[in-house]
Each structure stands twice: as C-alpha cells, then as structure tokens.
Amino acid sequence: METLALLRDVPLFGDFSDDELADLLSRGELKQYRPGERIIRCGDPGSFLGVVLEGTAQALREDPDGQPVVLGDIPTGAYFGEISLISGDATTAHVVAETSCQILEVPHQEMSEVLIQHPAAMKHVARTIALRLRPRTEEETRAAEAAAPETAAEPQAGVCLLAVSADRNALQYEFCDLGNEMNNFSGEIAGLNEAQATHSSAGVRWEETETIEGTLPAAAESVLKRLMSRLGVGEGQPLPLTAIGHRVPHGGEHYSAPAAVDQGVCDDLAALGDRLCPADCDALAAIEAFAQAAPDVPQVAAFDTAFFAAMPPAAFMHAAPYEWYGEHGLRRYGRDGLVHQQAVLLAAAHLHRRPEGLNLIVCNLAEAPSVCAVANGRGVDVSPGLTDLATVPGATTAGDTDLELILRAPAVLGLSEAEVTRTLQEDAGLWALSGLSGDLPDLLEFARAGNERAGLAADLFCHRVRKLIGAYFAVLGRVDALVFTGAWGMGLPALRARICNGLAGLGLELDDNLNSAPPTDARGVSDIARGGAATRLLLAPTDRHRMVAAAAAEVVGHGDVCAAILARRRPIPIGVSVRHVHLSKEHVEALYGPGHKLTFRAPLSQPGQFACEEVLDIVGVKGRINGVRVLGPERPETQVEVSRTECFQVGVRAPIRMSGELDGTPGLSLAGPAGEAELDHGAICARRHLHASPEEAMTLGLRHRDEISVRVGGERSLVFNEVAVRVHPDYRLDMHIDTDEANAARLDQGAVGYVESVDLRV
Questions:
Q1: Helices marked H in 103-231 — which ranges?
Q2: I want to staple 111 with a disulfide (CB 3.0 to 4.6 A). Which of 106, 482, 684, 746 is the partner?
Q3: b/e 575-609 (16+ beta carbons within 10 angstroms → b)
Q4: Which of 557, 571, 542, 546 is nearest to 162 (CA)?
C-alpha cells in the first residue's frame, strides 16, 4: 500500500493534509523489521518517535531471571518512544517486531516541530504520555485537556506603545507595556460627548461614564490622563510612551509601509481626506490631537492600504477614462489591510511556512466584510474598492451594486442622488434585505426558525463570499489555505459551513467536528479542514491594535519588539514561593499531637497541593521564624524551604536544591503547639523551576530536565537563568521562585515571564 495512504490511517495524523504527511515522511526514515528483530533496546537513549505503519510490535522487559515479559502490543497505527520525546531519558523497555513491520522513525527534534504546528496531534501524544506515566480517571483526563494555551507578546523592558484608532464618532485605544503585560489596558470612548468609556485591564472589566468636550483633543487628553493614573505617573512627569501608533485607513499611493508622522504625512492625509476617503479625516484629527497632548512622543501612521501596494494595475484599475486615475487617483485601494496582513502572518506561523511563500484567500467577515487574495504574502486583489459599494454586503451597506440601480433610483424612487448614496451605504445590506437585523448571527437563527427573508439575506451573503473565493482561486492559480477572520468568520460555524458547501472541487473540504469545536494553537489559530484536504481551512484571530503597535515599534527602531509582538508568545505565570514546610506523618503527630491530620486551608497552583491551617516555628542556632505555613499533603520526609535571607536569620547554610533532593542538607528544629521535632537534615533553598504538563511543555518546545532562561518584565526587568523544567501529567504551567528572587525583580502577584532560551539538559 502507498505510504501516504498508510499514514492517513494513523489516528495521530488525522488532521494532516497530504502535503503535511509528505513533509513528515521527509523528516523521518522508513525502516523494515523482520519478526523478532529488535527496534529499540532498553536503556538506549531515546532519539525518535516510531510509528507502526504495517505489522505489530511488542514492548518487552526482562524479569530478574533475564526472561522476556510482554508489556503490551503496539499494533498498526500506534506509536512508541513518546516518553523519551518529552523526558529525554533512556528507553525503559525493548521494542521488538512481532510480525514483519514497517516503521516510520521521526527524530525527536523533527517530531517536536511537527507537533507544535498540530494541536490535535500534540494533545493526542500528551494524553498518551499522561496515561503511560500515571493512570487517570476519565474525569481527570478531560480536565487535563481542557486548558487552552494563551497568547501574548514577548516582553521588552522600557518599550511602551499606545495604539489608537479613530473612526467616525469613537476613539479606540490599547496601551501595551512590553516589559510588564499586567500594565496593559484598552478601551473605547464612544460618542465623544457624554462619552461612555469602557476599559479592560489584565482580564478585569469595568465601566465608567465621563462627560468630556465633544472633540478628539478632549478624548486624547482623557486617554493620556487615564494612562498616567494607571501607571502611577505624577503630573509634570514624562509620559512612559515609546511611540503612539495610529491606524490610518488610507495611505493612497504614497505609502507602502508604516511611516513616522511629520508635517508631510499630515499634508498628504489632509489631501487624501478631501479627495478620496473622509474616514482619513478622523485619523488625521486623532494624530493632531495626540501630537498636541503629547508633543514629545513619536507618532506613527500604520496604513490599511499599505498591504495592497503590490496590487497589479489589472486589479486596481477601473475601466473608466484613464485620466480619472492619472489626474485624480480614482482606483481600487483596498481596505482592512492590517487585518489581512495579520491573518497572513498567523497562517504562516501555523503552517510553518514563510509568508513570502504563501498564497492565501482571506475572508474578513464582520459587519463591514472584505475578501482578499494574497500571492507570496502580499495582497494582490481585494473586494472593497474606493467605497463599500464594491464588496460583500455588510450589516447596513449594500455591497456590490449595479451602477444602473444607482443611476435609475432617483427617478424611480423620487430620491435625490445623495439620498440614494446614503441609503446604499448606511440603510441597506443585510438589515434592509431581511427587515429584521444586520447581525448575521441573528439572521442565521431566524433562518433556522423558518424566516424566509432572513434565509435570503444569509444565502446572498454566503453566495457573494463564495463567488469571490472562486474568483480568487482563478487569480492565484494555487491556494495554500483559505483563512476566516473577523467576528463572523471566527465565531459562526454555520456560516463557514454554508460558505464552504460546494467548494470541494477547489480542495476546500471542511471537517464538521473541527468546525464545531475548533482546536487552537498557541497563537489562537485553528485548522478545520478535513484530513487529507488539498487546501487548509484556517481560523485566525483579529487584533488591529496589535498590528498598529508592531508597526509603531518597527518605525521607531525596535524591530525585535515588532517581531515579538506579532509572535504572540505564551506567557508563563510566576509564582512566588514564601517560606514553608512539608511534613512527614511522624512529624505531623510530633508537632500537633497523635492522630492529627493536616487541615485544608486553600489550594495551590499545582493539583493536589494545598496550604494548611497549621503553622509552626522554625528554630535555628541564631534565631527563630514564627508562624511558618505548613503545606500538604504529608510527604515521606520533612522538608523546610527558606530563602537565602532567612538562612542568615536562623543561622543555617541551606543549599539550593530541587524539592525532594535532601541528601547532605542541614537540619534545624521545628516547634508546634504539641511539641518539637529535631531534624538532622531537610533544609533547602528551593531552586527556581518550572512545572508543566506534557502538552504545555510541548507547546513551549521544552522537555523534562531542560534548563531554560526566563525573562520577566516590570520595574526591574531581568532574566532568570538555570530554571529547571519539570514535566508531569499532574503539573500545571507555573514557574516558582522564592521571595529574594521576586524582590530582586520587584515582581507583584500575577506577574508573567517568557522563555528566552533553552540552555542545556541536566
């Protein structure tokens, strides 16, 4: 049987396309084994993940007499070597061919890279590791699989960015502190008069209403005052801003990249606002308002149209008198370029490809939709033209409209030309067609309930999107992925199913189960295509402000930060471990009385671990520390964990050790309400370490017993080197440091860090 066909039948690779399976084959080596031939020898270094494509293998160990004991069969479609993949340890069993076997052997490094790009396969391997290392109940297994990876940016001390978007009668903003993401907050001032301002910070939402003068300068001052208040910056002190980035809808033909704002840029925007795009007047007004409020802070314009600077004339020209373009600049410029560019970057990261090598179709589906063709990472065609009357119908916009309708409507309907234009741009679209709502989620619900006009509106929307997809397939010739983004594209499985229905001939085959519950990677991207489909179907999140912040960082000379912002790397929670004691059963009874059981007080970050109601005193040759918390449950040996400062306080020279490594450690005395306990060993300063489940470790590209460097931001940003990695199914992602280390970095509760490098194995 063809090797690709064999790989398709392996459950681990259920979501892989043929191209991805071929890539996997190129990374590994196919080997044939005869019955009884050894594939892995117990005790040898684990170096590959083996996948049984044909035949059956067995896992064996030898009993004390040297006789083989069968641990289990490894049938066709199963794999082995996954424990070494995450632990790096030597193998603990022989693997022998029971029948003639064909095995695909993929080196661990190659397999790790593949798994990072396929969350479903990673989860499959993580589950297998968990079951092998520790039997789980079904409920525990579900809980272990429930956590989805978060996304965030790489920190960079001293780089603080404000991203701004002014649109019509509202101002949206987001503050990004690359040194300490807990400082980040965002908000919107809507109305600009008796403004309702909504703000969000560190996952906590609150609302407040303030009355401000109905101008953008007043809104800018309000945002900057709130920023100074949030960061504790006093009046008269400089703003902690590296740059202010502005989303500018239109850059004309002048700008193919973000630009530092100067008088020339403002003049260009003013001219464009007068001639082509009234929305630019809002962006220009916001730039001028923030320049007045923060004159010493560099400002950067990030243009939506820049992403489409590579459009060929055949795509952007209208078949109108050439002078309309040559003398007045009337052409197709595109829209939502920042959204489409972000979708390209996220798709490239998910597919493990360079953006410059990708052909994509991006469907930004929301109240103001747009569809884009991407060739070699750049926008080469896009549905919106000069206005919304050349794209997919929106919530209240007509979309692609026959010119004859516009010309005849005034006479037929008794409306002025201005009234017709306003109607098509503001009172048409899905709302007008359905007579019920312009919100597609509502229309799909009404359609399911049998409302014909709602069904018509939904069908028309999907038909127009599907027609553009087909057209862009013809334009591109080869399409690597169709990407859905925007609120509707990301949030409506039924919409995606309707659009993809009938597109199998183009290689677009949607998996119903994945579409209903999309698995996400570390950047929030999902692949919902059927395994083996020729073209991937991706979902990519939208964050215009992140793109504006990245553009601002790049222009003011922080290109490394720009790349990190776009990478959306996963933060690691930092837990500060204060002094505490783990007690053996013997010492629990010695300190608190015979038969005493530790009393639960509060859970800790790691499952099954908890703080107890019980406290005790640590007594050394130089002093005493009162009221030290006991942690549960009981342990085989008593262990006292203190910081270096506390070692001086009590007079003990405790070494830096991992928990449980107590040989050769000094002892001290413990005093409880019922008695004392003299320890001849057990005092340590805990080595900084990172707990992770197998899936979390694979997401971060880490293995058990790695040493890593972790960067933390904040007031005293620093890098913690030699952080020991510990991986186990019972662990949850959390880095532990002691109070001395936390004080050195001035870390508060809720701090996070990021893996800067993997140093070595210990």
A1: 108-116, 119-133, 138-146, 216-231
A2: 106
A3: bbbebbbbbbeebbbbbbeeebebeeeeeeeeeee
A4: 546
CA distance 302 to 248: 6
Residue 582's SS3 state is strand
Burial, 229: exposed, middle or buried (Cβ in 10 Å; 0-12, 13-18, 19+)? Answer: exposed
pLDDT-derived band at 632, boundaries 50, 70, 90: very high
User: Would you put residue 72 in left (φ > 0), alpha (ψ -120 to 50) or beta?
Assistant: left
Q: How far is CA 243 from CA 159, 251, 559, 583, in A?
A: 9, 20, 13, 53
pLDDT at 301 exceeding the cut of 50: yes
For 338, left (φ over 0), alpha (ψ -120 to 50), or beta? alpha
Task: Answer for the pair 707, 732: CB distance below 8 angstroms, yes or no.
Answer: no
Q: What is the pLDDT of residues 47-94, one digit of tens each?
A: 889 999 999 999 888 877 778 888 888 999 998 888 877 766 678 788
pTM: 0.57
Among 247, 273, 243, which residue's Cα sits nearest to residue 258?
A: 247
Residues in the chain: 762
Neighbouring residues of 370: CB distance < 8 A, sequence distance ≥ 6: 334, 335, 336, 339, 340, 364, 382, 383, 384, 391, 392
List of domains in the chain:
3-145 (2.60.120.10), 160-230+239-309 (3.30.420.40), 337-546 (3.30.420.40), 570-762 (no CATH)
Q: How many other β-carbons are positioned within 10 Å of the β-carbon of residue 146?
A: 7
Q: Tell me the sheet residues that pair with 300.
A: 245, 260
Would you say 647 and 654 are in contact if contact means Cβ atoms under 8 Å apart?
A: yes
Element holding 409 (H helix, E strand)? helix 403-413
Q: What's the pLDDT score for residue 150?
A: 32
> Active-site residue numbers?
304
Angstrom distance (rounded) from CA 510 to CA 533: 8
In 10 A of CB 279, how many CB atoms?
Answer: 18
Strand partners, 49: 106
Q: In the Cβ-directed half-sphere of 279, how many Cα atoms lie within 13 Å?
A: 20
Three-state SS at 567: helix
Half-sphere exposure of 74 (CA within 13 A, CB side): 30
The tokens describing 607, both together, are 């499952």
Token pair in block for residue 547? 């793109």
The identity of residue 644, as a single letter, is R
> 752-761 and 706-712 as β-strands: parallel, antiparallel, unpaired?
antiparallel
Chain segment 393-415, per-residue pLDDT in tens: 888 777 777 666 777 777 777 77
Write out the two tokens for 503: 């597109």
Q: What is the pLDDT of residues 646-677, one digit of tens each?
A: 999 999 999 999 999 999 999 999 999 999 99
- Residue by residue, DSSP assigns 338-354 as HHHHHHHHHHHHHHT--
- The number of helix segments (H) and strand segments (E) in the chain equals 26, 37
**Which stretch of 337-341, 427-431, 579-583 has the lowest confidence by average pLDDT?**
427-431
Those residues whose C-beta lies under 8 Å from the C-beta of residue 171, and which sit 6 or more positions away, are 164, 165, 188, 189, 192, 216, 219, 220, 223, 286
Q: Left, alpha or beta for 158 (phi > 0: left; psi -120 to 50: alpha)?
A: left
For residue 146, what pLDDT is reported?
Answer: 39
pLDDT attached to residue 142: 42
Amino acid sitting at position 161: L
| Predicted confidence (pLDDT) per residue in 334-363, tens digit | 888 999 999 999 998 888 788 888 999 999
Give me the phi and psi of 39, to 5 degrees please.
-95, -45
CA 137, CA 612: separation in Å to the nearest integer? Answer: 26
* Residue carrying structure tokens 């962006």: 283
Please state, for a pLDDT cut of 70, what percent of the chain lies above it.
85
